[in-house]
Design a protein that fits this description.
Structural class: alpha/beta
Radius of gyration: 20 Å
Bound molecules: 3-methyl-2-oxobutanoic acid
Order of helices and strands: HEHEHHEHEHEHHEHEEHH
Strand order of the largest sheet: 1-2-3-4-5-6-7-8
CATH class of the largest domain: Alpha Beta
Largest sheet: 8 strands, parallel, barrel
CATH superfamily of the largest domain: Phosphoenolpyruvate-binding domains
Strand content: 5-15%
Number of helices: 11
Distance between the termini: 43 Å
Amino acid sequence: MKTTIQDFLKKKKEKQKIVMLTAYDFPFAQIVDEAGIDAILVGDSLSMVVQGLENTLPVTMDEMIYHTKMVSRATKNAMVLGDMPYMSYQAGIEDAIRNGGRFLKEAGAQGIKLEGGREVAEKVRALTISEIPVMAHIGLTPQALHRMGGYKVQGKTEEAAKRLMEDAKILEEAGAFSLILEAIPAELARQITEDLTIPTIGIGAGPHCDGQVLVIHDVIGLFERFTPKFVKKYANLKEEAVKAIKQYKEEVEKGVFPGKEHSF
Ligand code: KIV
């Protein structure tokens, strides 16, 4: 049975943690789903970890739909959320609804995620009214990279923290069913989490959030360019893969592979 928004809210009420990961294609989504993760985010982080680009800004709506389709096809239980890429909602409410709707209509997602505080509240409201469940995202919002001047911890001053607390409340009131808190102090994340009835999902926001999300390539050791402080690497698959492929190469070169058992 697919995880629902109601399951998210129930988990918050019952103080059970919500566990999320990103995935971008069929085999990874199948692995994440089999591991019992509650929700898969097809993040615009795919721009960096799959497409090899510098930041998340270039990935297009059509590319996001292409990847979300693969993830939905592989997923039996986890909720699938499509991440609204840069410029798919910034220009207006109509864009937001049309592009958000594509994730549900074409790609089989159960909802969408978008970045921003009070400035996107009207879009969150319009999406929610259009039956497109919204996970909001505040704190470090990578699509605002150039305004923020880099990937920096947010909400460190009293004024910035107050603004983030207000944003969280405004987004909840606008209809968001959940809220990602990225790279903010743990104490601020605790206050926001206690203040809201919708669950908070942390990434670099400490242990007090209602759930956690990470980028799968970071978790299993497939992204080497940089590792944020908040990432814990649970495996080193890049190393394992290079080892396996080197062995294959050596065996082909020495005539060990293919053996009799692989031949007709
Ligand atoms: O794009 C992404 O993967 C994200 C998560 C890391 C929250 O926004």
